[in-house]
Design a protein that fits this description.
Amidohydro-rel; alpha/beta; Metal-dep_hydrolase_composite; TIM Barrel; about 475 residues; 14 helices; Amidohydrolase-related domain-containing protein; 3 domains; Metal_Hydrolase
Length: about 475
Amino acid sequence: MLDLLIKGGRVADWKNHTDRILNLGVQDGRIAYLGTDVPAAARIIEASGLIVIPGVIDSHMHASSWLGGSSAFRMMAKAGVTTAMEMAGPLETVFEGMKREGAGLTIAVLQQLKPGLNISGTDPSDDELKRAIQESLESGAYGVKLLGGHYPMTPDAMKRLIRICCDSYTFLAIHAGSTEHGSNLEGVREVIAAAEGRPFHLAHINAYCRGNVEPLEDEIRETADLLSRHPEIETESYLSPINGCSAKCRDDVPESGVTRSCLKSHGYDVSAEGILKAVADGYAAVHEVVDGFVTLASPEKGIEILKARGMDVPVSFKVNPALSRFYFATQKKQDGTFLVNSFCTDGGGIPRNVILKNGLLLVDFGALTLQEFVLKSSYETACRLGLTSKGHFSAGADADITIADPVSREAVSTFISGQPVLEEGKVVARGGTIVTTPDGADAVRRFGLPSRVVDVRTLLKTRWNR
């Protein structure tokens, strides 16, 4: 007898070329049946009229004390996510949040390389970079991230960081930007040149196409050309009109380069007063926790929160044009493969967890098939992370499942390894699992969290030498 049978839903699976009404069975946490028969099961879920897809994997989100916070876990679970990559850290705060407020999700974490946190300044030596990278891995990180748009390094330090990570087969993600160029097309040009053909992950590609350097269409065209000419670079795109950054100021100036850029691009003073004015005008919105979920506060409430907390709160700006979001979500290369293979939200605890909400709109519009949506929302990222038993419904695969309503485009129920996480729209799971490397397995265990170990060095060596 099966543990669970999901009956009569529209089952879509990219890997197995499936998109039709089927029954999906689970036994011992794994996919055990897919077909039209109705085998006996301890529990049967009627899924008629619903979409049944491999668990949504968010390839870029935030759930740390720096950005996102521990509300992120419930917010992602509510949005149908089962696995995600936290792309900033600090690492320990993500672990602490999972222990305290986790929702059963599987999470990989990248540790930020930030002056004052684990490097001394914007131009660290090779030895300092190597030490920070190894300490991050031994603490449980999947890899490291340069928050160039927020807390940049010099161009030379960025170039050396890419070389060091490539030589050691360390997963490196970069938010484009340096001490000389910002989080825009100029930053993209710079980091690709600095890499000199070496592979790395370039975060949220659409975020650099906002028309701040060249006309928007020209920026999109050049960025697409750069990606086509550099297949060694992996990236992802998101579907939300808002971004997420920090309003924290030092000497009345926003610490984050992205915050400064958002203010400057729309004619606001680059200062605490400029942030307050942007919030008052509705261009920016302050994050507010309501009943355990982060929302965007009204202008009046946002200003109150900023003043009460000395500006040290997350804030979102309406900066992402629809054209660049749509283009990078749907554009294909001449060989028929996608220019950008995976979706992300850059959300988590930022209220823009819209992979289902906006991604299924693209399916309704005819810009993607449902199988293509599964590729971009689950399968591709599972492969990239080395989680080969996720992202598909092959026999023996992890029973990570998202059931969604195609009309509301919201998650109804989710399961991870056959265990319920979201039941009829309510988050029911706790805790979670950390995806780490062999270097970090002991640290995760000492922290009291279960782990899933991926040999990232071998994974990247195989991929990069292909």
